[in-house]
Queue: 4 jobs
Job 1
Amino acid sequence: MKRVSLFMLLTCLLPVSPLPSAAADTSVRRGRSDLPIIIKSNELTADNKGKTAIFSGKVVAKQGEVTIFSDKLIVNYAEKNGDVDRVEAIGNVRIIQLDRTGIASHAVYESRVGRVTLSGSPNPKVMRGTDSVSGKIITYYVDDDKSIVTGGGDPSSRVEAVINPPARKAHAGEQ
């Protein structure tokens, strides 16, 4: 598999946090494609003609400080150059990077448009410490460093952000 950022999916999902990105986060993003990608699963089905690799059963994919857990991980390669075109994580998706965690039942990274989408039931959520953001759909645009959290067009579904003041964060473990 090419190292063209299978884990772009991971690192890009997590800046959705309502906190500003730290300088360390950008250095992780810049250097991650040079690191080896290690994927463990119960089964791997590779289709060279179809340009896909499907990992299934207790999937754990790790690159640097980023780890994805899911029931299934589907990697689609571009027709011409063989680079990663699309990565889809399905079932019990959990993405961990340093102090941030994203959870969803479905996650998709589309490399051509630089878009990461978390969706599924229950609502996807991104957490960093005691702060969090959740909604029906969390979309992160990699090139623009921009995120959008929506209720998915359902007027009864709401976005929720929990942002604790710095003083509360410092004392969160004392109670």
Job 2
Amino acid sequence: MPDKKIRFDDFHLDYGRFQLYHRDVPVRLEGLPLQLLMFLVEKRGQLVTREQISSELWSSKDVFVDVEQGINTAIRKIRRALADDADEPQYLQTVVGRGYRFVAPSAEEDDGGQTPTEKFVVSPEELGRAIMTAAGLDPENPRGTPEARAKDPAKSGN
């Protein structure tokens, strides 16, 4: 997941850099709210309960934290970073008494802009011919010796 990037509207979430960007400009968002945003994005479209958030972000039982207040604060910071409105959410929907749902309609994984059809593909036969040609061999007569090619100008291309 380190290279994973999710785009939604003018934002992109870079998991490897642990950074949210708006129009390619870093958005200031503290660690815990950013972790929560990543968690919600991973579960996009699904209801994420406050209990799930609590166990994901505050898994240590040894530390006392006001989890309810922590979740509320983190949600508020995410909304501020995304310029989202709780009453008319574009990204983060509150399901009253239950939890939250990431609802950006166009959230998708960013593959760096290269689709599989744009990748350069060479068949094994083409690669073999290219290597043989680069080595000075005739792909049509690979066993032919350089001396034989020198004597027969038609085969050497001279």
Job 3
Amino acid sequence: MSDAQNAASSAENPMRLRDALRKARIEAADRTGVVVDLRDAEVARLEILNEALDPLFAQVPDNIDLFDRGISQGETPRLWIDVVAHILMGRDKRIYRFVQDTRYGRIVLAESHDVPVIVEAVTDYVARRMIEREHALVATPAPQQEQKQRPRRRGWGMFLLGFVLGVIALFGFALYASLRGF
């Protein structure tokens, strides 16, 4: 009878394993679907914010090319404002986080559940960046260095003085030597 029980249990085990694998695959697909749904929800919220920013960026003059707004759809979807500033969704996927990358790390410029609050923060950021650009483009005249007049070199005069003093010194040594009787 033990052989009959083993045969029966071995016949049931493959079915149970097969059922367990099927169940695990269904659960994994559901989790993947949830992750995809969350990412789609993040992108949808960022698109809503992007549309709310359209009036702001319509006011930016065409000759200013500081801003390159767009949504990147990587592992973490982001709404880019420029090269260093972007908006991403917080951990709870409902809060907007406006951040800027600096050489000292990432700083949070604004964080809110409300689109108008983030739009106001982006407006302030865009205004500050435009002012920085104006200051950088202002052509400040370089201070001109006053040309100092070179002091006149007394090359020949000094040479002549040295020559005369040398002749006098030689004459003095010769006179001294002749008087001493060398």
Job 4
Amino acid sequence: MSRQSGRANRAMEKFSQATTARAGSTAAFVAAVALIVVWLVSGPFFHFSDTWQLVINTTTTIVTFLMVFLIQRSQNKDARAMELKLNELIAALEGASNGMIDVESLSEQELKVLHQHFKKLVSMARHDASLTESHSVEEAEERHRRKTRGSRARRRSTSAA
């Protein structure tokens, strides 16, 4: 990346952050409502003409069009930052599955399979004394098998007695 495009990118990033922060403020909402009120009040002066309607339609279309790109850019950056933070936590926690790092690159089908595994984990964890006892699907499945074997053995010994 050239130095000039790097500067342009940083400038665009700063502009994007500042604009989305301001656009989401109470002052921006009040200004938008005020603009609509001014437009409505001006209607009788312009005899509710086609030009009068075109002004608000064009203004709102342009603002919406530009804001879509600014908001998407801001959300992309926020999502990437959140992914990195979560990846750091996964990498740092003993017992956490490093396979979950970069999980967002999996296909939809792979994510569905993973979701089913976690649903299974939750189902098994509900039978545990504490929801925090299991760390991974594999560990939960093994713990569940051990518990099931133990409870079967206890039932057999009590029914034999």
